[in-house]
């Protein structure tokens, strides 16, 4: 009796095992993504037997195919993140649309055997960059870097502006000390000389008075040049050209000298910073001053042109000329005009050449970079 009961129980468990094996025979055979318009299709990476598949957020519409032996099929599948209840169907596929970003578990089994173990497929939908956990912190860091860089560049710009302003002030202070100090010292000494010889030599005293007047006019001209150079209304090359014409008229107009000016139409479009504009103008003025004082010229030619990125100034006269190795046209107050012009040309980062022979006139050529 016990043997019969044991045999019947074994047979029963074998029967359940066979049913269980048959019920577990559902398998997932393929996974295909449904292509979207304007989205480049991607080939499926799923292979039969895989338990994991990764999808892009652009291809989050997919069809899962499954099968089981026999002809009478009844499937039950579920995905907790998508369906609140399991879905029963006789179709051998499931359409999953608009899968959310992240992980979800798809399960399918034979619906005729509720206790059977389902076939499982883990689906991972990759999130777009802007929805990943590190995106906002990274954007914050990038924004912080950009803001810091902007503030640093603003600081550097303000610093350059302050240094530029400081440089302008130093140049003005140096010019006032060098030129004005020299002129005023000369006026003081000449005035003292006039007092000493006024009674003894009236003629010589009148010459000294004339010299005082000439020096005072030089002081006024120098002050006028300084004020003009720092005036923001004179930032354009058009104003520089106007100033050049006015100075030429003042220096050469009282003498029997014919002035010929040739200004290129492209010159007004050039921009020179304040420091360069001032040095450029003073070289030109020094050249005309030397012509008016020492050249004994009949004609003066001034050419200002643009050649590529170069601004070229040519001042030529038909005067007596001089030996460039031993210049005699020195400032009576002790400064060397030619030396000053070369120094200013070096500050401009340009080249200054002076060609002259005795009796053959003089040609001054200045070349600097213009913006």
From TrEMBL:
Residues 169-233 form the Signal transduction histidine kinase subgroup 3 dimerisation and phosphoacceptor domain. Keywords: Kinase, Membrane, Signal, Transferase, Transmembrane, Transmembrane helix, Two-component regulatory system. Residues 1-23 form the signal peptide. The chain crosses the membrane at residues 133-155. Residues 278-367 form the Histidine kinase/HSP90-like ATPase domain. It holds the Pfam family HisKA_3. The keyword Repeat does not apply. GO terms for cellular component: membrane. One of its GO terms (molecular function) is phosphorelay sensor kinase activity. The keyword Signal applies. PANTHER family: NITRATE/NITRITE SENSOR PROTEIN NARX-RELATED. This is Sensor histidine kinase.
């Amino acid at each position: 009796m016990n043997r019969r009961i044991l045999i019947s129980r074994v047979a029963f468990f074998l029967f359940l095992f066979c049913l269980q094996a048959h019920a577990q025979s559902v398998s997932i055979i393929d996974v295909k993504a449904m292509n979207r318009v304007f989205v480049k299709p991607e080939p499926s990476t799923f292979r039969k037997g895989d338990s994991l598949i990764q999808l892009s957020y652009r291809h989050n519409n997919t069809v899962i195919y499954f099968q089981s032996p026999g002809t009478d099929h009844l499937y039950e599948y579920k995905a907790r993140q998508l369906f609140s209840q399991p879905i029963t169907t006789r179709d051998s596929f499931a359409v999953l649309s608009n899968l959310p970003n992240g992980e979800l578990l798809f399960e399918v089994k034979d619906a005729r055997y509720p206790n059977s173990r389902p076939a499982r497929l883990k689906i991972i939908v990759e999130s777009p960059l802007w929805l990943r956990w590190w995106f906002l912190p990274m954007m914050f860091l990038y924004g912080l870097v950009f803001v810091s860089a902007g503030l640093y560049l603003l600081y550097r710009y303000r610093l350059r502006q302050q240094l530029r302003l400081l440089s302008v002030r130093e140049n003005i202070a140096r010019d006032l000390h060098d030129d004005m100090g020299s002129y005023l010292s000369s006026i003081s000494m000449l005035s003292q000389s006039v007092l000493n010889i006024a009674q003894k030599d009236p003629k010589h005293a009148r010459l000294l008075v004339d010299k005082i007047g000439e020096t005072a006019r030089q002081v006024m001209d120098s002050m006028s040049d300084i004020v003009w150079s720092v005036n923001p209304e004179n930032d354009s090359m058009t104003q520089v050209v106007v100033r050049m014409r006015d100075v030429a008229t003042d220096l050469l107009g009282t003498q029997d000298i014919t002035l010929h000016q040739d200004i290129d139409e492209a010159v007004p479009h050039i921009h020179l910073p304040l420091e360069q504009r001032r040095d450029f103008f003073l070289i030109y003025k020094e050249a005309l001053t030397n012509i008016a004082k020492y050249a004994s010229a009949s004609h003066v030619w001034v050419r200002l042109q643009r050649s590529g990125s170069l601004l070229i100034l040519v001042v030529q006269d038909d005067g007596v000329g001089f030996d460039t190795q031993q210049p005699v046209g020195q400032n009576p107050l002790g400064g060397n005009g030619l030396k000053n012009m070369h120094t200013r040309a070096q500050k401009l980062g340009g080249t200054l050449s002076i060609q002259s022979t005795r009796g053959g006139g003089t040609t001054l050529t200045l070349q600097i970079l213009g913006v």
